[in-house]
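Appendix B, record 7
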Amino acid sequence: MISMVKKIIFSMVFVAFTASLAIAAGSVVIKGSTTVLPIAQATLEAYMKANKGVQISLSGGGSGDGIKALIDKSTDIATSSREIKREEIALAGSKGVKPVAHVIAYDAIIPVVNPKNKVQGLSTDQLSQIYQGKITNWKEVGGDNLKIVVISRDSSSGTFESWDHFVMKKSRVAATAQMLASNGAIVTAIAKNKYAIGYLGMGYVNKSVKGLQVNGVTASAQTALSKQYPMSRELYMYTNGEPKGEVAKFIAFIKSPKGQEIVKKEGFVPLTAFKEGKKAGK
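Structure tokens (predicted):
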């Protein structure tokens, strides 16, 4: 009788253990870029709807935070709007992590102002001088006699680092600049302040803000892919080694025609546009 009870208890424990493994196997954690956030959110909702029982958790915080989480092994996927740095790769290697990049979309960083601002475009040099605090009034760049309020992403942001690469070129952003934690926060701030300037991933530009031309070029899918627009970039998902299981399936879904339709719907440039562009260039 006792042995029978032991067998039953063992069976119950084994079933509970295997069930917990199944739940874990169907769970995916994603952390990182706020620029990639709309793509990740929309695609995970579609993926979970089509794959009942799969659980995907998602949080932003910035590209740097996502890559740090990958290195710390606290996320399955790190989303990033920039390439991983050499020092991050070295740190990952010291912890037994091998970051593998997956390009999931293309983007352009667009400087934005309040719709009431009459300025239509700026050069990269003018943008740099504005963010360094050397140009402080809109009248200096063809606008009204109004003091410029500079708004930037914070240093954990991949968009901040891309802005540094394309515009600042290692020059410091003025200490008077407002540093905000997300694209959404910048949209809200610019929409409320006719003196302000900020910058966004193209999927965040809406009617409440006005995108500016840069060096006379308007950001679009075509100019981003051709690199004619001077602040074009790739958007990434990073995994520890080649993805497996549910992580591999989810990334494959994002790269699929259905996933790339979601990318386009969210205002970013799908990978399919790149393939079409290559065909057209032949």
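Remarks on this record: The longest strand covers residues 99-113. The chain has two domains: 2-106+235-280, 107-226.
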